């Protein structure tokens, strides 16, 4: 690696450097939480798959970590993915090429582990495109007025509710199972991008509820919904944020996440969340762009929906990544791909697939149908960013017929997304 003189790359294998890492992290991600409180909470750092750049005296100058996900959903399949996280460069070390070297190290490490794709949630959206990451999913956030009307759903009123304070030992496995089950819905399709808490590090991180991380709000609460046989059909985790204005309650429900395995459960959960005493609004997000609440609300506009980028995808091994996922329509297309960082991906590739089948991907020297960069291929990989839309922006080039066929094939009936950031 071509790191600046006087620095070196070191592995962060154990948590014995936690306090040092958190001090460094506060330079790159300012926080109002005292260091002692941060040390006492689960950090989510993937020790054993984290690396730092330090001076010869041992002072941290940059770092990154990676969660090795084995069950990441892509259209029609689950695949291993290296999820980039904890990326930061100290202010005194910026503009020295360190981030580029760390990203190159990450790519090589993922490829050595058999991960054809890298993903991330971007703290700053402008950074990662230059490394070949494309925005592949969108999130929606809502501020829903209390009492907002919902469209009727058969069977909702027959479901029972249970509400209790969050207990990670009791409730963590229940929530994890429901959350993982949602990744497979609708049956036969699944939701691309719906990452689950499949590593012990992530489970500990999402299950915790320390006072230091509540922002002065109440302890986390849980709503469970069951059918007539007592089977769990969904959950919601939330806190209430108290506020009064001129003796009028203007408190809000801060919804952490909500999962429903069928429409009736979604309606029942939202019905109770929108009818809690003293609350004025329910703040929800990130939500997938086709989350059921957007269709259930009689007046979705009143919920003030806002959208933002969510997941960014970088294809590392092009033939393997394209062969692992499925396609929504038959396709036979030759792509000419550019990739400034991974030359093995560059060139012309023929992609042939049946509807809802996997593809055969082979290198060819025949005339191309479409031209695009690896970034745009990553944007389209989860099925929610249209190749035709990218073509309208001048980012994909080709004639109308192959573009239309490829755009349909790369799409997916269910929007990509996930309800948490890591």
From TrEMBL:
Keywords: Acyltransferase, Transferase. It comes from Leucobacter luti. InterPro entries: Acetyltransf_17 (IPR041380), Acetyltransferase_Eis (IPR051554), Acyl_CoA_acyltransferase (IPR016181), Eis_dom (IPR025559), GNAT_dom (IPR000182), NAcTrfase_Eis (IPR022902), SCP2_sterol-bd_dom_sf (IPR036527). This is Putative acetyltransferase. GO terms for biological process: aminoglycoside antibiotic catabolic process. Acetyl-CoA binds at residues 87-89, 95-100. Gene3D superfamilies: 3.40.630.30, SCP2 sterol-binding domain (3.30.1050.10). The keyword Acyltransferase applies.
């Amino acid at each position: 690696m071509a790191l600046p003189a006087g620095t070196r790359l070191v592995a962060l294998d154990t948590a014995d450097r936690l306090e040092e890492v958190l001090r460094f992290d506060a330079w790159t991600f300012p926080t109002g939480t005292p260091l002692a409180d941060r040390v006492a909470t689960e950090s989510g750092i993937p020790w054993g798959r984290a690396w730092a750049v330090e001076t010869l005296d041992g002072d941290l100058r940059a770092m990154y970590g990676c969660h090795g996900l084995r069950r990441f959903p892509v259209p029609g399949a689950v695949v291993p993915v290296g999820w980039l996280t904890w990326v930061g460069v100290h202010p005194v070390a910026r503009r020295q090429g360190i981030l580029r070297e760390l990203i190159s190290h990450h790519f090589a490490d993922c490829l050595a582990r058999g991960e054809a794709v890298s993903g991330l949630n971007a703290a700053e959206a402008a950074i990662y495109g230059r490394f070949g990451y494309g925005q592949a999913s969108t999130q929606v956030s809502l501020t829903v007025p209390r009492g907002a009307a919902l469209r009727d759903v058969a069977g909702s009123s027959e479901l029972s509710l249970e509400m209790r304070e969050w207990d990670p030992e009791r409730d963590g496995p229940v929530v994890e199972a429901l959350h993982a089950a949602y990744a497979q819905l609708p049956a036969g399709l699944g939701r691309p991008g719906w990452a689950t808490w499949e590593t012990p590090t992530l489970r500990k991180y999402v299950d915790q509820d320390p006072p230091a991380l509540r922002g002065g709000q109440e302890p986390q609460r849980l709503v469970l919904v069951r059918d007539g046989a007592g089977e769990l059909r969904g959950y919601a985790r939330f806190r209430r944020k108290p506020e009064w204005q001129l003796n009028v309650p203007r408190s809000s429900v801060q919804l952490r996440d909500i999962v429903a395995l069928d429409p009736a459960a979604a309606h029942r959960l939202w019905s109770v969340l929108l009818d809690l005493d003293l609350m004025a609004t329910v703040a929800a997000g990130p939500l997938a762009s086709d989350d059921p609440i957007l269709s259930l609300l009689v007046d979705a506009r009143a919920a003030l929906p806002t959208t933002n980028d969510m997941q960014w995808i970088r294809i590392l091994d092009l033939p393997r990544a394209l062969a692992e996922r499925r396609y929504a329509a038959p396709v036979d297309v030759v792509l000419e791909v550019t990739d400034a960082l991974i030359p093995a991906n560059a060139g012309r590739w023929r992609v042939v697939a049946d509807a809802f089948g996997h593809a055969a991907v082979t290198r060819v020297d025949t005339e191309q149908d479409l031209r695009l960069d690896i970034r745009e291929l990553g944007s389209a990989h989860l099925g929610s960013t249209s190749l035709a839309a990218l073509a309208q922006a001048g980012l994909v080039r080709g004639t109308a017929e192959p573009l239309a066929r490829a755009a349909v094939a790369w799409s997916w009936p269910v929007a990509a997304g996930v309800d948490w950031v890591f």
